[in-house]
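The records we work with from here on pair a chain with its fold. These numbers are not coordinates but entries in a learned vocabulary of local backbone shapes. To see the layout at work, look at the sequence and tokens printed below:
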Amino acid sequence: MSTPFRVEFEAFFDSLRSDLIESISDMSHFPSLPANVIDRMDKSLAMNARGGKYARGMTVIDTATTILTKPLTQDTVKDLFMLGWVIEIQSAAILVIDDIMDNSTVRRGKPCWYRRPEVGLAATNDACLLHSITFWILNKYFRTHPGYVDMVDLMHRSNLITEIGQTYDNIHTPPGLQGFTREGYNALITYKTGWFGFTLPVVLTLHYLGRGNPVNVMQSERLVVALGNYLQVQDDFLDVFGDPAVLGKVGTDIQENKLTWMITEALELCTVQQRQELETHYGVRDVESERKVKDMFKEIGLEKRYAEYQENVIDNINRMISDVDESEGLSKAIFERILSKCVKRNKWEV
């Protein structure tokens, strides 16, 4: 069954995009922008923000429809769509940069933006533009909203946390496996995806609805970070054992020497000989070395280990949900819906 408003949310992008491009191209006190600059911004928006599953954007709508007991007005739906696209566009900016850093080739079944001959490393500036556009939307449409300051502050905070996570991901360990620890991995995923994955859309919606009080925000952050961490472990597993045809992306974690749940588990379970093999082949940009690492992961039993992890983490998150205090307008159903989307998925949802 499709999510309510899913089709309408996707269709709304075209009108928002047209309005944004028209507004940006006609800024007061600035010379008119050349047509090729406008065209580049328009294409970057269209190619990078669209094409995913819109899990983050739809979480905004899901959160609001779960909390509110009365039907949404047209104005409220429009506002929620805009906030959802703020997050989707910001996600696009992050992914454009992430693909460059990871030397990725495919995103959502198509060549990565920077891999296009007419784009190249100028994609870094396109990512900056996408980032700035999110604040342009907030300022244009929400600057008189009572929650505007909290929403902008949350966006800045979320971006900083995510960028710290990206830095951690890229430079925290030297070549080899000596720096790969459970503690390091837990910190990495909390910064990189635990926050941005679902905390941002849930808390942003709470501020919009006037329910972003400290109690609700604290509970939401704690629970949704746990959900985001679960999502990242899934991504780590899918990067190795997922089907690229289903995922829409070719996994690169092994060749890129990434600190992941897979390698962390493997190092805790492997024999001395298996560790030597991992030391030799993990992080080597070679298809044969990658295959040997995948075979080693199977030999160590990571597929079974992952299944056990899923059962345990789902039980833990369900206990956390049952403890949610709903007295100040928060709803357990928000987190139940997010968990239902995450459980045992077999493809990336972003």
Notes: The CA atoms of residues 331 and 339 lie 14 Å apart. Strands lie at 106-107, 110-111.
